[in-house]
Write a structure and sequence with these properties.
- The chain is an alpha/beta fold and about 450 residues long.
- It folds into three domains: about 5-70, no CATH class; about 75-85 and about 345-450, Aspartate Aminotransferase, domain 1, CATH 3.90.1150; about 90-335, 3-Layer(aba) Sandwich (Aspartate Aminotransferase, domain 2), CATH 3.40.640.10.
- Helices cover about 40% and strands about 15% of the residues.
- The protein has helices at about 10-15, 20-25, 30-45, 55-70, 95-105, 125-135, 145-155, 180-185, 200-205, 235-245, 270-275, 300-310, 310-315, 320-330, 335-340, 345-350, 355-370, 405-415, 440-450, and strands at about 75, 80-85, 110-115, 120, 140, 160-165, 190, 210-215, 245-250, 280-285, 295-300, 375-385, 395-400, 420, 420-425, 425-430.
- Helix 2 (about 20-25) packs parallel to helix 4 and helix 5 runs antiparallel to helix 14 (about 320-330).
- The chain is globular.
- The chain starts with 10 loop residues before the first helix and ends in a 5-residue tail after the last helix.
């Protein structure tokens, strides 16, 4: 029932109450006043009015907590998609987090050469380590993989033609399409071959005096099977060399270690790709590499030098925190065993199903003991995500709950720490393959709150 206007209190009379004034110590007087005004306005349209001071305090607290909650906040990825683009892709290693904290604390040598006491360049950070790990001559870090492609084409092919296979003009997610990115770089695309078959001779026939580059795009987020053919980097290298133009390889996800022992096959590693001889290789830092969002360009000294000198390099550069996190992540790869253990993305992708199941059992037991809710332990299949290993299915286990699954799923999303799962077969599935082990306790707490809304 809508409250009559005369039954509603004045804003001033509410904020003068002792319990309400006390809230100003935490929220400030203007914020509390605005919250009271909003609650009274809502009551005019039918919302319930707080009945006493305790209810007023709770209503004001709830409103201001919601208003001041950051839009970007921690969440738990229980979807079973390990590198979930919408949920931030790769979680960072502890070493990377520590490096961010140290560099963020105060001044740093971001653009200062401490050895010589002169101005330095941020583009030197990570380059030596990337060359050590991959065998490349030089490297530059920009803010994402698409930026690396834009910079490469701007620096080497703007105003001229770039040859690319029709079968590699892919969409990379979020409606971003490689041909549109390439065209925006100021180059004219010359498409060769067909959707399913492109041969080396197709590239050779497309060469002209206006050709500035050949681009090879790795189709990392889908697979074409059947009557297919494509030219490899090894096939294209002599063609580019004969024409005197660079061969640019958009490599994608940045796999540094061979994961075939864990059933993840079909992707070449970065060192293998470098040895194939492309002029430039472009990849991501926040997918299979397991680092922060970044675009990494490896290549010859001459080509990387051209990218560094291009004015657009300043617009696409990364900040000191990204460089710190990336350098710390890369350093872990000096010991592949340690990298697989300490880089969370790799650890989640290679963990045994038995360990995942043990964690699921512990969570299911805790929920059942606390609430009496029927919780099942189900085998399932996780995926890699991040546009990598698109056909791979990784054995996993999930907590599943059938009781009012849609409401429970919504309650988990709306919690203080959002938990994102999936609904299938009328049940809520929480796949622990994509959940950090240290988040298991938080997951239990969020489940308990969602199952018992009145208990905190």
């Amino acid at each position: 029932m809508t409250s009559a206007p005369r039954a509603l209190p004045a804003v001033g009379s509410v904020i003068e109450r002792a319990a309400i004034r006390a809230l100003a110590e935490r929220w400030t007087t203007p914020m509390v006043t605005d919250a009271v005004r909003a609650i009274i306005a809502a009551a005019r349209t039918g919302s319930p009015l707080p009945s006493d001071d305790t209810a007023w305090v709770a209503a004001i607290d709830a409103r201001l907590t919601e208003q001041t909650r950051p839009s970007l906040r921690a969440a738990i990825n229980a979807t079973g998609v390990v590198l979930h683009t919408n949920l931030g892709r790769a979680p960072l290693a502890r070493a990377a987090l520590a490096a961010i904290g140290e560099i963020a604390h105060g001044a740093s040598t971001l653009e200062y050469d401490a050895e010589r006491g002169v101005r330095g360049s941020r583009h030197t950070h990570c380059a030596r380590l990337l060359c050590e790990l991959t065998g490349a001559e030089d490297a530059i870090v920009v803010n994402n993989c698409a930026a690396g492609l834009v910079l490469a084409l701007q620096a080497l092919a703007a105003g001229r033609e770039t040859v690319v296979s029709r079968g590699e003009l892919v969409e990379i997610g979020g409606s971003f399409r490689v041909p549109e990115i390439m065209t925006a770089s100021g180059t004219t695309l010359v498409e060769v071959g067909t959707t399913n078959r492109t041969h080396a001779d197709d590239y050779r026939r497309a060469l002209s005096p206006r050709t500035a580059a050949i681009v090879k795009v790795h189709r990392s987020n889908f697979v074409i099977e059947g009557f297919t053919a494509e030219a490899s980097v090894r096939d294209l290298r002599p063609i580019a060399s004969e024409a005197g133009v660079p061969l640019i390889h958009d490599f994608g996800s940045g796999l540094m270690l061979d994961l075939s022992a864990w059933g993840l096959t079909g992707e070449r590693t970065v060192p293998e790709t470098v040895r194939e001889g492309a002029t430039l290789i472009i990849m991501s830092g926040d997918k299979l590499m397991g680092g922060p969002q970044a675009g990494i360009v490896l290549g010859t000294r001459e080509a990387i030098g051209a990218l560094r000198r291009h004015p657009l390099a300043r617009a696409l550069r990364v900040d000191k925190l990204t460089l710190a996190a990336l350098e710390a992540t890369l350093a872990l790869y000096r010991d592949p065993v340690r990298a697989r253990r300490e880089i969370p993305a790799l650890a989640m992708l290679t963990e045994t199903p038995e360990v995942i199941r043990a964690r699921v059992v512990a969570i299911a037991d805790a929920i059942t003991a606390a609430t009496g809710t029927a919780v099942a332990i189900e085998p399932c299949e996780a995926t890699v995500g991040g546009g990598a290993f698109p056909t791979a299915r990784i054995p996993s286990f999930a907590v599943t709950i059938a009781a009012d699954a849609p409401s429970l799923e919504a309650g988990l999303r709306h919690g203080a720490i959002p938990v994102v799962g999936r609904i299938a077969d009328g049940r809520l599935w929480l796949d622990l393959r994509s959940v950090l082990p240290e988040d298991d306790e938080v997951l239990v707490q969020m489940l308990l709150q969602a199952l018992q809304p009145g208990v905190r």
